[in-house]
Amino acid sequence: xxxxxxxxxxxxxxxxxxxxxxxxxxxxxxxxxxxxxxxxxxxxxxxxxxxxxxxxxxxxxxxxxxxxxxxxxxxxxxxxxxxxxxxxxxxxxxxxxxxxxxxxxxxxxxxxxxxxxxxxxxxxxxxxxxxxxxxxxxxxxxxxxxxxxxxxxxxxxxxxxxxxxxxxxxxxxxxxxxxxxxxxxxxxxxxxxxxxxxxxxxxxxxxxxxxxxxxxxxxxxxxxxxxxxxxxxxxxxx
Length: 238
Known about the structure:
Blueprint: H1 14-37, H2 44-51, H3 55-58, H4 65-85, H5 93-109, H6 123-129, H7 131-154, H8 163-171, H9 177-185, H10 190-206, H11 220-237
Helix pairs in contact: 1-2, 1-4, 4-7, 5-7, 5-10, 7-8, 9-10
């Protein structure tokens, strides 16, 4: 008699399933609130209410607000990596970078997890101390850096842009205020907003930072006024 070899059945209890479902609900609602309201304005009470559970349940899964939001932002970085993993190997480096910019802009419109904290947000300290976030961000930056260097060699990004500056220009699209500004005009669809923001970012990187048409040169009279003010300040300090 032949006996078919069967894989062992991994039993998952109903209690474990409910535990996972509750945690996922918490993470999803926190993701939306964190994107829409920001870390400082978001509260655990709001997360619990949105997830349809008591606030005390949140503490069965997370130590507190910082712990919860750090995990949400790590998941955001993991989603970004998963998207990049799915890009065609036939794409040029500049095309990969543009695809990444479009993805982070669309994620912002979809209230997905932000990749970067808001400026002066209290969560910055927690993210610096989070090994999971730092490792995930380092992996993403390493990948972007390789594409930026190749795009500069190919002539698609101007060689005068420092690597760190170019990378941050790309990453900061995840919190680009231009998205909300254009949406509020009601003049563009979501897809058009993504398109214009992505074009603006990539067009800037293609031009030389030393020859920017927006460079401001003060007039002779403005320079004279500045010299007089500096002179008064020096005398006052003396």
